[in-house]
Design a protein that fits this description.
Helix content: 25-40%
Strand content: 15-25%
Order of helices and strands: EHEHEHEHEHHEHEHEHEHEEHEHEEH
Number of strands: 14
Structural class: alpha/beta
Number of helices: 13
Length: 353
């Protein structure tokens, strides 16, 4: 145990946007102590060299990656790395008794073939991969609590699945009619320089990408939708890049099985479905969520509308892609894995305006 009985935790890949959110959340968390920051390109630097504005609180150095050191020092570790690296580390860390939370896609798929089809790579960890739990607490809370290894949900899938889950689980819509139209801020692209994320390229414009089922989050969304519906489900998912830093808004359309359902019925159904989920906020009729409301929080705001002319339900879901879509969700999973209060250390009041 760490300082004052707090659980010692580490982060591998602390230099990116996901990593720096984790550092902020863990430094404020009353039940854990941040004892290790690991990285390759930034090894040997102080964390404050990368993020000078945190120098007054974070005096840790970024250490070279050493799995023995991590396992000796940390009871739990976050792997905040590009896809294809976590599965090379997780087997050793789990075998040494560490709880592992992977923020990449490496452990999100129940079928390793699906991962390899979309992400490539040669996997030697199939046995371990089958034990990984999908890290979306609102759906898999009990399994996460018992897990040693969690593959945290992606940002787009989080916003999309929280909007779709009650509809599919209760059989309220025709699954094949589901369309997800989602928009994300540029921080979702990470901290590495990319031409399309330069201010001159991304500002004052709006465009789609990964259209026609080509985005890597599509199979992740479909896997959970199929689990909820009880049969194979294909969804239409179109992501867009929007000129803002943080936030995702997913607008989900689907045809109702029972055209007689009205908005208030669905608000009641959603409220009941999420009654034990402290971070999902179902909005009153006629109120539609904005990304700014969720900024800096682990909340998901959901607004619901029914169009009686088309017999469609329209669900709008807003999250902060870096918190509920990434670091906050990972910490929410860790709280469950450690038997702590699920909301511990997670902000519920936004930066506003």
């Amino acid at each position: 145990m760490g300082d004052l009985g707090r659980v010692p935790v580490g982060i591998v890949g602390a230099s990116g946007y996901g990593g720096v959110q984790l550092v902020r959340l863990l430094m404020e968390h009353p039940g854990v102590e941040l004892v290790y920051l690991g990285g390759e390109s930034s090894a040997g630097k102080s964390f404050s060299d990368l993020y000078p504005h945190l120098g007054h609180r974070v005096d840790l150095k970024i250490e070279p990656l050493d799995l023995d050191t991590i396992a000796n020092r940390c009871q739990a570790v976050f792997l905040s790395l590009p896809n294809g690296l976590a599965y090379q580390m997780a087997p050793t860390l789990v075998a040494k008794g560490c709880k592992v939370l992977d923020l990449s896609a490496d452990y999100r798929f129940s079928n390793p073939e699906t991962y390899q089809a979309w992400y490539g790579g040669e996997r030697q960890d199939r046995e371990l991969a089958t034990t990984a739990v999908y890290g979306l607490p609102e759906l898999y809370r009990d399994r996460i609590a018992d897990a040693q290894l969690v593959g945290c949900a992606g940002c787009y899938p989080t916003a999309s699945l929280l909007a779709l889950s009650p509809l599919l689980k209760q059989g309220l819509v025709l699954p094949e009619t589901a369309i997800i139209d989602a928009k994300s801020g540029t921080s979702g692209g990470g901290r590495q320089a990319k031409t399309n994320l330069l201010l001159a390229e991304a500002d004052n414009t709006l465009g789609a990408y990964g259209v026609g089922g080509r985005h890597r989050h599509t199979p992740e969304i479909e896997q959970v939708c199929s689990d909820l519906a009880g049969h194979e489900v294909t969804v239409q998912f179109t992501p867009h890049l929007i000129p803002m830093v943080r936030g995702i808004l997913a607008t989900v359309y689907a045809n109702l099985r029972d055209p007689g359902l009205v908005r208030e019925d669905l608000i009641t159904i959603f409220s009941a479905f999420y009654r034990a989920s402290p971070f999902v906020k179902i909005l009153p009729g006629g109120i539609y969520p904005q990304t700014k409301w969720a900024c800096g929080t682990n909340l998901c705001y959901i607004g619901i509308e029914v169009d009686p002319r088309t017999d469609r339900v329209i669900v709008m879901s807003a999250i902060d892609n870096l918190i509920k879509g990434q670091a906050g969700q990972a910490l929410q999973c860790l709280n469950l894995m450690l038997g702590m209060e699920e909301t511990l250390g997670l902000p519920q009041l936004s930066f506003y305006p």
